[in-house]
Amino acid sequence: MSEPERRDGGDKGKSTAEKPRLDRQRILEAGAEFIEQFGPRHLTMRRLGTELGVEAMSLYRYIPSRENLLDGIVEVVIDELYKDPEVYPEPRHGWQDYLLRLAHGLRRLALAHPQVFPLIATRPTEAPWVRPPLRSLRWVESFLKALTSAGFSDQAAVDAYRAFSSFLLGHLLLEVAAMGADVGPVDEAEPRPPRSTDLSDYPLLQSLQERLSEDRSEQEFEEALESLLDRLEALQN
Amino acid sequence: MSEPERRDGGDKGKSTAEKPRLDRQRILEAGAEFIEQFGPRHLTMRRLGTELGVEAMSLYRYIPSRENLLDGIVEVVIDELYKDPEVYPEPRHGWQDYLLRLAHGLRRLALAHPQVFPLIATRPTEAPWVRPPLRSLRWVESFLKALTSAGFSDQAAVDAYRAFSSFLLGHLLLEVAAMGADVGPVDEAEPRPPRSTDLSDYPLLQSLQERLSEDRSEQEFEEALESLLDRLEALQN
DNA sequence: ACCTGAACACCGTTCAAGT
DNA sequence: ACCTGAACACCGTTCAAGT
């Protein structure tokens, strides 16, 4: 059986990723990638189609609307949390370890997808009590189980869930914003004018600007997280 | 010189808010109102024009682009903070009182503009260290002055500013989200199907659903705020 | 000086038609 | 079964033209 040339494997040297076939998962992944590259504003059914080597209209066989596309992209991205080996779906070394791992996992996810994260933060969830950035029944269940098993009352577990959510949301949204993420244009041409703000009227800002511009996000995160855990510890019975 | 009738004063009794004249401020206020009514997604140059009794093209005499319109709306809304008599631009009864008033003022503002708040939270600011939800050099200066005057070191004041920002952002974004705000459609027709999620696979959620649906946002806010102040107190020298 | 009509390039989405 | 072409209603934005 000589195989002098395989006829399907040939990549023809096209530089972009090939188009193995259209399906929902592939469209969503391409969408996530597109947003990470150009920002949510530029994601268009037509441009995404082009990206996939297909007419925009073809996407409608797999995705009912642009809104649904965005929701799907958010889902596909947060689903990565399940694949993070550092994050356990149930506590193994106590609830603090569980929460630390979960928090760090979400932070890694946010930093890996700074342009998608604002969508994770602001897209409506399936129920008002399914809060970003967890966004899934499965993780909320996991969270509550971890705490109640550790001796938290039902109410305390719920309170902890809420405090944990808003802590993560605030910190991570600000951290990705500082990376230049936004729901906005990201004008390819001019990557945003240096715009050295006029601080003449703000003496304190002037003298503190350097300090304000330092990136302390990691320390901030760790300290606030630790303080949150202390606070939660007080809720435990 | 008899003046039997003045020719410019007549109001003609039109019922809707009059169109006294087109100007930037009026457009921005109309925009804020529009977003609060229909959601950011529905705000269109053309629809806003119609709302103001004018063709969309006329807006371009005052507003260079839709992006600029959104930024202007955000600005106009946060500027309300200056008009809140409960919020002091400089501390009068100590830094804790100052921070409490500032936090409560921002919460009132968020609750008064639940549809605009996500824009306040996610629109890019003029410098990365000007964080939402304060978003203005003037408030950052005010904040830092309040704390340094109270004996905080420069670094501690900056740390406090960051912690305060992310606390507010997380809490308020989640609170307005629970009110049904989103950067999304708000389909007038169906105000979102009750969508009673299937919880059969999540026993804990099932038994805690009632508790999870309770609105405890005020207590949450107060408790987290108090805990934040405690944390900041530890930074003070 | 201020507003408008017409036009351009681009959207999301539908549907009959092609392969 | 899957993709496309043509079409519709709607955008943001520009600009010459009207009053």
TrEMBL record, chains A, B:
<dbReference type="GO" id="GO:0045892">
    <property type="term" value="P:negative regulation of DNA-templated transcription"/>
</dbReference>
<dbReference type="InterPro" id="IPR001647">
    <property type="entry name" value="HTH_TetR"/>
</dbReference>
<feature type="domain" description="HTH tetR-type">
    <location>
        <begin position="21"/>
        <end position="81"/>
    </location>
</feature>
<dbReference type="Pfam" id="PF00440">
    <property type="entry name" value="TetR_N"/>
</dbReference>
<dbReference type="GO" id="GO:0000976">
    <property type="term" value="F:transcription cis-regulatory region binding"/>
</dbReference>
<feature type="region of interest" description="Disordered">
    <location>
        <begin position="1"/>
        <end position="22"/>
    </location>
</feature>
<feature type="DNA-binding region" description="H-T-H motif">
    <location>
        <begin position="44"/>
        <end position="63"/>
    </location>
</feature>
<dbReference type="Pfam" id="PF02909">
    <property type="entry name" value="TetR_C_1"/>
</dbReference>
<dbReference type="InterPro" id="IPR036271">
    <property type="entry name" value="Tet_transcr_reg_TetR-rel_C_sf"/>
</dbReference>
<dbReference type="InterPro" id="IPR050109">
    <property type="entry name" value="HTH-type_TetR-like_transc_reg"/>
</dbReference>
<protein>
    <submittedName>
        <fullName>DNA-binding transcriptional regulator, AcrR family</fullName>
    </submittedName>
</protein>
<dbReference type="GO" id="GO:0003700">
    <property type="term" value="F:DNA-binding transcription factor activity"/>
</dbReference>
<keyword id="KW-0804">Transcription</keyword>
<keyword id="KW-0238">DNA-binding</keyword>
<keyword id="KW-0805">Transcription regulation</keyword>
<dbReference type="InterPro" id="IPR004111">
    <property type="entry name" value="Repressor_TetR_C"/>
</dbReference>
<dbReference type="InterPro" id="IPR009057">
    <property type="entry name" value="Homeodomain-like_sf"/>
</dbReference>
